[in-house]
Amino acid sequence: MATTTQDQAPLAQLAARLPQIVAQAGHSEMWGVELAVSDEQQEGDEQQQGGNDAPTLVVLHKFLRANNDDVAAAEKQLTAALEWRKAVDPAGLVGQPFDARRFGGLGFVTTHDDGAGRDVVVTWNVYGSVKDNKATFGNVEDFVKWRAALMELGVQKLRLNDIKEPVAAGAEDPYRMIQVHDYQSVSFFRMDPDVKAASRETIQTLSMAYPELLAHKYFVNVPAIMGWVFGAMKFFLAPATLRKFHPMASGTSLAAELPGIAQTLPVEYGGQGPSVSEGISVRLTDDAAAVQDASAKSSEPPVLAAISESHNQEKPAANEYLAKTPAATAEPGSKAAQEPKPADETASGAEAAAPPAMLPTKEAAA
Asked: Which of 39, 104, 218, 366 meets the CB 3.0–4.6 Å disulfide criterion with 206?
């Protein structure tokens, strides 16, 4: 027998609201999944979970988890993310050519068998490959599009449409990636304004659009002199958040942190697999005309402006989720990691005082 909305579990409540959410956003696709649930699920019948509903329920579970099971907050974030996808079409960006001179060698995706029949998806951000900060980060919209395209590649490898059962209540979500940020040759003591601007926009966008898709974040080739910053984080961040951060001075130490896939990790990171540069990446080209044509076809307003004005908010809707999301993007040069913020917008004063380009903040997602 169907229960009232008030009596339903958060997942059932959000599922019941899905038709209205999709109608308001004017878009139904999230990470390759067409969001739809059966009539039984909409009515709160918990015996009818799974099957064709499973991919959608996993997506909804991620938005709920990012908002501590607050159904109203999860609905607002899901609506904003759907509106962003409608405006930007990040799945389409995967096939769009990006300028190799600006983004070549900067990001890759690899998959690794953990020995138990499960693929572990790893996204790599190799910031030491940036040759010209102005070229790579100067056009914020282009950088965010490239970063979203890389996320889409990783999400594709999760094969969310193949899911047959939703995540059980209280169980660990297995449909997440590992992310590695490599800071080899990156300066932590000189901040470029272009890097700051691109980082802030990226953090805001990914935290809104890709919640609960990262299981752990590894920060490798971090100078030992900066280790005190991560040590100080245990006094300020929630244990659940802190457990996702793994700083290390040497990239080759990564294999010891991931013993289940150590053998197949790239050789640069202590494994015996091919170089990370042989992983899949976004489509790159040296043809400036092709890049310009693709950019013109996908040109959109500033990314966060894609959120509908119907929300009637003074600030971009994505900003509401930054302080609530327990995971972290920690893009290089995060402005959020340097400037003091009100108590409701930052985890602690330690983030504001931290060196640029390295400190993991709670502000995001991806």
From this structure: 366
Nearest to 122 by CA among 109, 134, 113, 104: 109
- Tell me which residue has tokens 């899911």: 163
- Partnered with residue 124 across adjacent β-strands are 108, 180
Residue 157 sits in the same domain as residue 210: yes
Q: Same structural domain for residues 207 and 86? A: no
Residues 75 and 199 grouped into a single domain:
no
Q: Are residues 69 and 192 in the same domain?
A: no
CA-CA distance, 365 to 38, in Å (whole number)?
A: 29
Residues 100 and 73 in one domain: no
Whether residue 110 sits in one domain with residue 42 = no
The answer to whether 321 touches 62, Cβ cutoff 8 Å, is no
Task: Supply the pTM of this predicted model.
Answer: 0.79
**134 and 115 fall within a common domain:** yes
Cβ–Cβ under 8 Å, residues 182 and 220: yes
Tally Cβ neighbours within 10 Å of residue 50. Answer: 13
φ and ψ at residue 266, rounded to 5 degrees: -55, 145
Residue 129 lies in a domain: yes
Distance CA 328, CA 240 (A): 12
Q: How far is CA 273 from CA 66, 114, 118, 128, 251, in A?
A: 34, 14, 18, 21, 14
DSSP 359: P
Rg (CA), the chain: 20
In a domain, 182, yes or no: yes
On whether both 144 and 278 belong to a single domain, the answer is yes
361 domain-assigned: no
Q: Quickly list DSSP for 140-176.
A: HHHHHHHHHHHHHHHHHHH-GGG--SPPPTT----S-
How many CB atoms sit inside 10 A of residue 78's CB? 27
**Residue 285: domain span:** 95-353
